[in-house]
Automatic annotation (TrEMBL):
GO terms for molecular function: mannosyltransferase activity. It is a single-pass membrane protein. This is Chitobiosyldiphosphodolichol beta-mannosyltransferase. SUPFAM superfamilies: UDP-Glycosyltransferase/glycogen phosphorylase (SSF53756). It is found in: Endoplasmic reticulum membrane. Pfam families: Glyco_trans_1_4 (PF13692). The lineage of its organism: Eukaryota, Sar, Stramenopiles, Ochrophyta, Bacillariophyta. The keyword Transferase applies. InterPro entries: ALG1-like. Gene3D superfamilies: Glycogen Phosphorylase B.
Length: 466
């Protein structure tokens, strides 16, 4: 009998994991769900329709996972009058959430012997309006109707209006030590109820072999080159490549001295590969990166360097169209900027191919941390990150990356970090040259999500579930 089967029964919990957003774009809550399933618990994952879930959840065939996704209509007629729209939005969200919690979750068909009783509701915050209130009402209604009250746990990612709701939760998870201190002092929550669960990369974010890198870069080669002529990537960068054996960055070499076995390696005179993941919102000033890249392009030309840089930007969001137009009018000679959307399984593979990552996250509270940096660190890829108060909990300047505060800072850092690629054209791993190699060594052996979750989150959940 498997370990998970042994865990089912009396010690097995049913946890609702809920986020007021697209489940596919809520990685931390998906990781919670995956970890709970691995411990033998039942999970109802509730949130908006949208992007695909991570591979572990997509491929899960167990009866203990129930995914409830919905979308809330927003009639155009209401959008014309903001006060009416806001009232409609809040009321409709309340109704849809209550329906999902009170009807969809209990009515899910559970074929196995796992119990239907909901022991706990784990909520992502933000967004909090009106989620925290609705979950609190759900717990009260469950107590009245069914005679037991599910525990209410808030997983704090950032802070907005939550001072009123915070004391009503049974337990709290937060992403930084600074956030724990803030919740304790400002919201009056007992220290014993607050548990720090630092973001850690799950196992999918890891280093790859040359062959694995080549396979991914071959897959996306068409995306990177198809629109190059409309943007800033000179055709000369790829027109002489053999697409059957070469990408912009790697190549496959048939070696007769090894009985014809193929060898995979970085391509000589390849561009540097920089990645940046963004939600395309005002929380991340993408203009800083564009300004830095324009300055970098000028400096490369002035120095008559052979350095070429491809910047791959991933993500979706409201400002994407605006910045795509801004990118399309740039006259860059040495830098290409590509905005693409990847399948969930391909995103960690792309990060593993990168020389360097850039984080533009600016915290509204100053006491959260960006998950995108942890993803890069899981692949042992250093970062340049925009500075804010809690960032030193994660990024140590000139130790595992660089911290910048302006476009001028960033362009200088990029030039210094990427220029040695001219000296080490065939280096492996991709970021294994100059200061990047030194930073990458500091990222070895970092704690992973599963171990960190089992040590810090699981006890917090079990302690409030009866």
């Amino acid at each position: 009998m498997s370990e998970n089967k042994l865990l089912l029964g009396k010690s097995s919990l049913h946890v609702i994991v809920v986020v007021l957003g697209d489940l596919g774009r809520s990685p931390r809550m998906q990781y919670h769900a995956s970890s709970l399933l691995k411990e033998g618990h039942t999970v109802s994952l509730v949130g908006y329709t949208g992007e695909k879930l991570i591979t572990e959840l997509q491929d899960n065939t167990e009866d203990r996972l129930h995914v409830i996704r919905f979308s809330v209509p927003s009639p155009d007629i209401f959008k014309k009058v903001l006060p009416i729209y806001l009232i409609w939005r809040i009321l409709s969200l309340c109704l849809y959430l209550l329906y999902a919690l009170m009807v969809s979750v209990p009515n899910e068909s559970i074929k196995s012997s796992t119990k239907r009783r909901v022991d706990c509701v784990l909520v992502q915050n933000p967004p909090a309006m009106p989620l925290l209130f609705v979950v609190h009402i759900y717990c009260i209604l469950t107590s009245i109707i069914k005679g037991y009250r599910p525990a209410f746990i808030i997983d704090w990612h950032n802070l907005l209006y939550e001072q009123i709701m915070a004391p009503l939760a049974n337990s709290h998870l937060c992403v930084t030590d600074a956030m724990k201190t803030f919740i304790q002092k400002e919201f009056g929550v007992s220290d014993r109820k607050i548990h720090v669960l630092h973001d850690c990369p799950p196992s999918m974010f890891k280093t790859q072999t040359s062959k694995e890198n080549h396979r991914l870069l071959t897959k996306i080669h068409g995306k990177l080159c198809a629109s190059c002529s409309k943007k800033s990537c000179p055709r000369s960068w790829y027109q002489h490549l053999d697409p059957s054996t070469q990408t912009l960055f790697t190549e496959k070499i048939s070696n007769s001295t090894t009985n014809g076995a193929d060898k995979y390696s970085p391509r000589l005179n390849r561009p540097a590969l920089v990645t940046s993941s963004t939600s395309w919102t005002t929380d991340e000033d993408f203009g800083i990166l564009l300004d830095a890249l324009v300055r970098l392009d000028v400096r490369i030309s002035e120095l008559k360097s052979s350095l070429k840089v491809v910047v791959i930007v991933t993500g979706k969001g409201p400002q994407k169209g605006f910045y795509q137009k801004e990118i399309s009018i740039l006259k860059l000679k040495n830098i290409a900027i590509q905005t693409i959307w990847l399948e969930p399984a391909d995103y960690p593979r792309l990060l593993a191919c990168a020389d360097l990552g850039v984080s533009l996250h600016t915290s509204t509270s100053g006491i959260d941390l960006p998950m995108k940096i942890l993803d890069l660190f899981g692949c042992e890829v250093p970062v340049c990150a925009y500075n804010f108060p809690s960032l030193p909990e994660l990024v140590k300047d000139d130790v595992n990356g660089r911290i910048f505060e302006s476009a001028s800072d960033l362009h200088e850092q990029l030039l210094i970090l990427l220029s040695p690629l001219d000296t080490y054209p065939g280096c492996w791993p991709p970021h294994g040259f100059g200061d990047l190699a030194r930073y990458s060594r500091k990222l070895l052996g970092r704690k992973r999500w599963d171990g960190n979750w089992k040590e810090n989150a699981l006890p917090a959940i079990q302690s409030v579930c009866r």
